[in-house]
Design a protein that fits this description.
It is built from 14 helices and 16 strands. By secondary structure, the chain is α/β, with parallel strands linked by helices. A seven-stranded parallel sheet has the order 5-3-1-6-7-8-9, with helices on both faces.
Length: about 375
């Protein structure tokens, strides 16, 4: 006689409260990463409550903006501008784990852990290891107070999710329970079909460097995404087209019409470039090489002439162009969300099973002094 099928026990499912200080929708790249993280977890049966500062406009349009279809039923977006409301929320929703990439939220959640008893996970990335300057590029600066706060969070968090190996290696060596998990991408059925002379740059930051490089290579058509308005201009013997901010799915469609895709750092745009199978040109930094491996053509960081030389090499070699495109497609399989979300779920479930046992480090943080 067969055993009767039992209904799953709702109390046994993983329920995560993801705290962020952002407003939705947002043009920030990390907003897309947060939405994709939450969505991927719900596909694995995790119930996610995404806490945001405010929710603007129609929620249906929000899902379209980030290209999330179908809308996951297990993902709930909660506007919660005041931190004092977080504790009742955590207790009422019976969240089994609190997750954040915000240092302010992390400090608050850790300082009040003795009240809510929920394990706290902090997500960090390479830039979180800044002290006085970024050791890779020599740029960036963090105040000593910010560095001290990060160190305290690393010590007290029940777990840390790291986007780069440099961070993960450092924390692992110090005995911090951590997971190496770079940003993922969700398959949208798009692939780059653009010619070599059509160059895409999915950012409006530090555009001067790429403009200077394109000016040195005749015959290119550069498309820059993230401008305030649509605009075209001539740059020597090349053309530049500025595109305004647009929903992520629309951005991906436009990027797919380009052949070469340029990055000036190790940001989230690399996940988009890889997923589209573009011929990627990126700065020669440990963080970008960790992500891209041999799937990109590298140039010296901050050097417009070096970037121009890389673009010339692709222009003069159709074989190199096709080789880079194929390498991107192969490399992209490493970062697909279905695989990465499973690793994240297992990490979070393990922490929930262990439960939080440490004492709060910031006794005054919950009194509104942050």
């Amino acid at each position: 006689m067969k055993n009767p099928r039992r209904s799953p026990d709702p109390s046994s499912s993983l329920r995560v409260a993801y705290f962020t200080s952002m407003d939705l929708p947002s043009s920030k790249a990390h907003a897309l990463q947060i939405m994709e993280t939450c969505t991927a977890l719900t596909h694995l049966g995790v119930e996610v409550h995404l806490v945001v500062s405010s929710l603007q406009g129609n929620p249906t349009e929000l899902w379209k903006w980030y290209g999330v279809e179908p809308v996951p039923k297990a993902l709930h977006i909660i506007p919660l501008a005041q931190k004092r409301k977080a504790l009742p929320f955590l207790l009422s929703q019976k969240a089994k784990l609190a997750y954040t990439r915000s240092t302010r939220w992390a400090r608050f959640l850790l300082s009040s852990r003795w009240l809510h008893g929920t394990p706290v996970v902090f997500e960090t990335h390479r830039k979180s290891l800044y002290h006085r300057r970024d050791l890779e590029t020599g740029q960036g600066k963090a105040r000593n107070r910010e560095v001290s706060r990060l160190e305290e969070i690393f010590q007290m968090a029940d777990g840390v999710v790291c986007a780069h190996g440099t961070t993960w290696s450092s924390l692992k060596g110090r005995g911090v329970k951590s997971l190496l998990l770079w940003y993922g991408w969700t398959h949208q059925g798009l692939i780059s079909r653009g010619p070599w002379w059509k160059v895409g740059y999915a950012s409006f930051k530090e555009k001067e460097s790429i403009l200077e490089a394109v000016k040195l290579v005749p015959g290119l058509e550069l498309h820059i995404f993230g401008s305030s308005e649509e605009e075209e201009m001539k740059l020597g013997d090349s053309k530049v087209v500025f595109h305004p901010l647009m929903p992520h799915r629309e951005l991906m469609k436009n990027l797919a019409s380009t052949g070469i895709m340029v990055s000036l750092d190790e940001g989230l745009k690399l996940a988009d470039y890889l997923s589209l199978g573009g011929a990627i040109v990126a700065p020669e930094l440990p963080s970008t090489q960790e992500i891209l491996g041999k799937s990109a053509l590298y140039f010296s960081f901050g050097s417009a002439p070096s970037l121009a030389e890389a673009l010339k090499r692709i222009k003069e070699s159709p074989h190199l162009f096709e080789t880079l495109k194929k390498a991107s497609v192969t490399r992209s399989e490493k970062y697909r969300w279905p695989h990465k979300a499973l690793k994240l779920k297992e990490f979070l479930q393990d922490l929930v099973n262990q439960k939080a046992t440490r004492v709060p480090l910031f006794p005054r943080a919950s009194r509104g002094r942050l």
